[in-house]
Amino acid sequence: MAVLLWIVLLSAGVSLSRAQESFSKLPDIYKRGVELTLHQINAHDSIMNHYLFFKSIHQAEIEAGFDVKFIYHNFYLKATECERGMENADATTCAFRNDRPRVDCVICYKISEGEINNKPKPYLNCMHRRLLSKESKREREIGCFRVGFGHLTPTPVASTGS
């Protein structure tokens, strides 16, 4: 029994460190979007647990010139054992909950000189993965279109399977 418990704890630790490692390996321009998303999600009154970045699904960027880029990032968040509002929460202090579904997020924004611009306002859409439909995916496309992806063709920079 102790061996089984040790294996479970060890595998949970590997999962936590991989999630933290994947966030730390994101380029800064994508980290900023994830951080903005986490701030919005974790500040929401209906959220009981703290959420953390789990995995990137797709990234794209458009070079618009003059150090301006349009960023598209689709990624998963996952609830942790920590309560919402916990300061300095990360994957080493807050274990992911496996009894909660992943949250699928898309964020599109304009970034210049390394900072997210407020004009146009960043588009953010997050929902439980199992609730994604063709209609909700279309709404995401429209939201990103409004931010600046509509008149340009994004160049994928990284893509991973779900």
From TrEMBL:
Example GO biological process: chemotaxis
Main location (coarse class): secreted
Listed InterPro entries: Chemerin, Cystatin_sf
A GO CC term assigned to this protein in UniProt: extracellular region
Alphabetized UniProt keyword annotations: Chemotaxis, Differentiation, Disulfide bond, Inflammatory response, Secreted, Signal
Signal peptide: 1-19
Molecular functions (GO terms): signaling receptor binding
UniProt keyword Disulfide bond present: yes
Subcellular location: Secreted
PANTHER family given in the database record: RETINOIC ACID RECEPTOR RESPONDER PROTEIN 2
Official protein name in the record: Retinoic acid receptor responder protein 2
